[in-house]
Amino acid sequence: MAPKKRPDTQKTPEVVVRPKSRRTRSPWELEPEAKKLCVKGPGSSRRFDSGCVWAGLASLQVPPSCISIVRALHHHKLGKAAWPSLQQGLQQSFLHSLASYRIFQKAAPFDRRATSLAWHPTHPSTLAVGSKGGDIMLWNFGIMDKPTFIKGIGAGGSVTGLKFNPLDTNQFFTSSMEGTTRLQDFKGNTLRVFTSSDTCNVWFCSLDVSARSRMVVTGDNVGHVILLNMDGREVRSLEPWSSLSFPYPQPPRSLPEPSPSLQLWNLRMHKKKVTHVALNPCCDWLMATASVDQTVKIWDLRQVKGKSSCLHSLLHSHPVNSACFSPDGAQLLTTDQKSELRVYTASQWDCPPSLIPHPHRHFQHLTPIKATWHPRYNLIVVGRYPDPNFKSCTPHELRTIDVFDGSSGKMMYQLYDPESSGIISLNEFNPMGDTLASLMGELSRLYLRLAKACPAPQG
Q1: 183 Cβ partners below 8 Å, 6+ apart?
Q2: Sign of CA dihedral 232, 238, 241, 243
Q3: Which residues, other chains included, contact 397 with Cβ-Cβ below 8 Å and sequence gap of 6+?
Q4: Distance between CA atoms of residues 191 and 235, nearest Å
Q5: Phi, psi at 152, each rounded to 5°
Q6: How many domains does the chain have?
């Protein structure tokens, strides 16, 4: 059946700057139907200004006071403080700054829910967002010019993966339910189609890119993972002299280069849909794949020969939405489709992971909730979808954005917007780590929300 035609008119993204408020309200006044939360611990009586849309709730534990950063740096220079303790001090300072986070812009650019989000790697005020209809918006919220909007095909064109091209940031890679993984520019041109299923029964669900090794990896809905060279050369396996074996963009000249005539590297690595693929940012020959077959698998791309050649298979109790390496490559964060986050440690994959109970159940008409890392600190950010069957669920629990410590699994902070109280599926900090973009991926509505530390309102 041919997809329905979409109207020629497109919505103009709505950008809203919040006015300042002069009235102070307690956290439980932010939403009328929410009852007062009775939680013990410091900070339970703290009050927040109503102009601070990202309000700390009464149930939150306030981070302990941090020492002076200048003092900590001085002690580290004198050899009196180790680097981990300095990092912890910087992290505590950041957690305190979350109290001043406010929404300063939001937009509703699509007529279908949002499905993907990517920050520009070098412009901290620019991001790209994809929708279920295949629409893509490039938004530089630092200027008031109209965002760049690429219209999709409508039904069946859902953007499942979105990554800027690290070799040319005016371009981006997408994987989609249209059945392609392609390279595009923001003029709407398709520069190269890397993979095409040529059938409506197979589509691509995820992708990742490595600039150093010039590799593109993508996974489909039947369990296959495909590896390609950015230059369009298809590779079947990574020989010992491949660029992935060295910390350089190209292999040494004294070694032979891989033959460009090798066939497509396309192997079935999972029994069911591959929901997420990720290359380790420090060792890009190390790859993680997540699937609805309730496993996350770790691969050495230099030794892949089939689904039985994975280094480790990490079993989960439910289907898995994502598996993300930490910025330093030392940890792996997984999000299942029920109520569990897991943190695995590199080189100790067989050890029991750190388990973080967290409600984020999945249903068909919701963009899958995925936890992500902060780019500079060992912090995890994820949207909460309250579940009455969850062990610690409280009456009228709010749909917050939760921040966890990646080492201890301890809840550090929660952010909440009473005027956009939908289910928040995707959250991601920009590369600078000072601005948070959040997407509500429900069927009926979308808000692109941008929050950062702002001065407290006066009066």
Answers
A1: 165, 171, 172, 173, 190, 191, 192, 194
A2: positive
A3: 384, 386
A4: 20
A5: -90, -170
A6: 1
Residues facing 181 on adjacent strands? 175, 195
Lowest-confidence segment of 20-24, 131-135, 232-236 by average pLDDT: 20-24
- CA–CA separation, 368 and 416 (whole Å): 19
Closest CA to 201 of 242, 163, 156, 239: 156
For residues 345 and 331, the answer to whether their CB atoms sit within 8 Å is yes
376 exposed, middle or buried (CB, 10 Å; 0-12, 13-18, 19+)? middle
Range of the domain at 115: 106-453
Q: How many residues does the chain have?
A: 459
Mean pLDDT of the residues in the chain: 77
Q: Are 344 and 325 in contact (CB under 8 A)?
A: no
Answer whether residue 310 is part of any domain: yes
Query: What amino acid is encoded at 408 in this protein?
Result: S
Q: Is there a domain that residue 96 lies in?
A: no
Mean per-residue pLDDT, 89-117: 87
DSSP run (H or E) holding 74 = helix 69-77
Residue 4 lies in a domain: no
Cα R_g (the chain), whole angstroms: 22
What is the CATH number for 421?
2.130.10.10
Structural domain contains residue 97? no
State both tokens at 47: 């009050």
The answer to whether the CB of 267 falls within 8 A of the CB of 304 is yes
